[in-house]
Write a structure and sequence with these properties.
hpI Integrase, Chain A, three-stranded antiparallel sheet, elongated, DNA-binding, Integrase-like_cat_sf, Site-specific integrase
Length: 412
C-alpha cells in the first residue's frame, strides 16, 4: 500500500477581502483534497515557498505555531489510517484530520456552536432547572470567549479540539486585562466555559480534557455589610424622593429578612403565612439554589409590607413594587450619599447585613441563620461568623486605644 502523502499550505482570496484564507492541500497518488484551516492573512506577509507567514510579531508567531500544530495533527491522522490497514485517499486523510470518517460525515464540532447549543437549552429551562441569572452568566461567558477568539485567532470560531491549556490561560489573561475582570469574576466565567468543554469531552468530540491541569481558585473576599449604627441611620432617614424612598424601604426589607434581589422581586402573598407560633413567616424557595427558606418576619419588615399593601403595582403575585436590579443599585449609590454611608452599597449587601448585624451579632445561632438564608451547607454561613471575628478584633483594638495608658500591664 502506497502510504506517502504530500501537503502544502496556500492562500485563497475571495472578492474584495484584503485578507486571504489559508488552505491545506493534501495529495495522495496524484489525487488532491483541500480544507480551510480557518485562518486569514495579508498576502504580503505570506511565504508561499515555506508555507508560513513572514515576520516576528506576536500574531505571526501564533499563526506559525498553529500551522505547525495542523501539520502535526495531519501526521497523527495519517498514522491512524495506516494502523487500520486499509487503503485511503487524500479526502480520507482530510476527513480523519477534521474528525470525520466514512461512516460519519458530520462537520468537526465548532466551539461557539456547542456553547450556543448549551445556552439555548439553558434558556428553555429557566424557571425549571436554571435561574434567569444563570442563563445570563452563560450568555456573558460565551460573549467573552467569542471576543477572545476574534482578538487572538482572527476568526469567528474555532474547532473545539483546538482548545488547549494555552487557550484557557490566554482567556484568563484576556479577561483580567482586556475586560478588566476581577480575579473571582474571571475564574467564574472560565468555570462556565469549562462546562462546555466537559460536554465536548463526554460526547467524545475531543479526546482529552484541556482543563485537566488548570487550577482556578477563588480568592476569599470580605463581604461588606451595614453596621448597627449605619442601619439605624438608614431606618431613621426621611427621604422625600418617592423612588429613592421605595428603593430604601425594599433594601431595608431585605436587611431584615435576608432575601436576595431575585427572591424579593418574586415574593408573593402565598409565601407569607401564619406560622405555628401565630406570627407571620416568609416560606419560600430560593431562586438560585431551589432550597427552602423559612424566615419569621421582624416588625420592620412587617411594617414595610403594610406600607406598600395598597401600592398600585402590588398584587397577590407581587407583594413589593421592586424596580429593576440595575436601577435599584444605581439608586442605592444616591441613598448611601444621603445617609452618609461610605460603602459601595449594592442590593446584595442587604443579605450580608441580615446575616451579620441583624442575626449573628444578636446571638441567633448559626444553624438558624443558615436555614433562614437557605444555604445548602453550614460552611457557607460560617463565612459570616469569620467576618464577625474580624469585627471583634477591630473593636478590641479600638478599645485598647481608648484605654491608653490608664491600665498599664506594669500597674498590675
Amino acid at each position: 500500500m502506497d502510504s506517502n502523502f504530500y501537503h502544502i499550505f496556500y492562500l485563497r482570496r475571495r472578492g474584495n477581502d484584503a485578507l486571504s484564507s489559508i488552505y491545506l492541500r493534501v495529495t495522495i497518488k496524484g489525487k488532491r483534497a483541500t480544507t480551510s484551516v480557518n485562518r486569514k492573512i495579508s498576502p504580503e506577509f505570506w511565504n508561499s515557498t515555506a508555507g508560513r507567514a513572514n515576520g516576528n510579531s506576536q500574531n505571526i508567531k501564533i499563526l506559525n505555531r498553529y500551522l505547525s500544530k495542523v501539520e502535526n495533527n495531519l501526521y497523527i491522522a495519517h498514522q491512524k489510517l495506516l494502523e487500520k490497514g486499509n487503503s485511503f485517499t487524500a479526502q480520507d486523510l482530510i476527513n480523519t484530520y477534521l474528525g470525520k470518517d466514512k461512516e460519519n460525515e458530520d462537520q468537526v464540532k465548532m466551539l461557539l456552536e456547542i456553547f450556543q447549543e448549551h445556552n439555548d437549552r439553558v434558556n428553555r429551562l429557566i424557571g425549571k432547572d436554571f435561574a434567569a441569572g444563570t442563563a445570563e452568566r452563560y450568555r456573558t461567558a460565551k460573549k467573552h470567549v467569542e471576543e477572545y477568539i476574534k482578538k487572538e485567532y482572527k476568526v469567528k470560531d474555532i474547532p473545539v479540539n483546538e482548545v488547549d491549556h494555552k487557550f484557557i490561560s490566554g482567556l484568563e489573561y484576556y479577561l483580567k486585562t482586556e475586560r478588566n475582570c476581577a480575579h473571582n469574576s474571571a475564574i467564574k466565567y472560565i468555570t462556565n466555559f469549562k462546562k462546555i468543554i466537559r460536554i465536548a469531552h463526554v460526547n467524545e468530540w475531543i479526546t482529552k480534557d484541556p482543563f485537566l491541569n488548570w487550577k482556578g481558585k477563588l480568592k476569599v473576599v470580605d463581604r461588606e455589610f451595614l453596621t448597627k449604627e449605619e442601619l439605624q441611620v438608614m431606618v431613621g432617614k426621611e427621604i422625600k424622593n418617592q423612588r429613592l424612598c421605595l428603593v430604601k424601604d425594599i433594601f431595608l426589607f431585605c436587611c431584615f429578612t435576608g432575601l436576595s434581589y431575585a427572591d424579593v422581586e418574586k415574593l408573593s402573598a402565598k409565601e407569607v403565612v401564619t406560622g405555628f407560633d401565630g406570627n407571620q413567616w416568609i416560606k419560600t424557595k430560593r431562586t438560585k439554589t431551589k432550597t427552602r427558606s423559612s424566615i419569621p418576619l421582624l416588625p420592620t419588615a412587617e411594617a414595610i409590607l403594610e406600607k406598600y399593601s395598597t401600592h398600585p403595582e402590588v398584587s397577590e403575585e407581587r407583594l413589593l413594587p421592586v424596580l429593576s436590579n440595575q436601577k435599584t443599585n444605581a439608586y442605592l449609590k444616591e441613598i448611601a450619599d444621603i445617609c452618609g454611608i461610605n460603602k459601595n452599597l449594592t442590593f446584595h449587601l442587604a443579605r450580608h447585613t441580615f446575616a451579620t448585624t441583624v442575626t449573628l451579632s444578636n446571638g441567633v445561632p448559626i444553624e438558624s441563620v443558615s436555614k433562614m438564608l437557605g444555604h445548602k451547607n453550614l460552611q457557607t454561613t460560617q463565612h459570616y461568623a469569620k467576618i464577625l471575628d474580624r469585627k471583634v478584633s477591630d473593636d478590641m483594638a479600638a478599645l485598647k486605644n481608648r484605654l491608653g495608658s490608664d491600665f498599664m500591664a506594669g500597674d498590675i
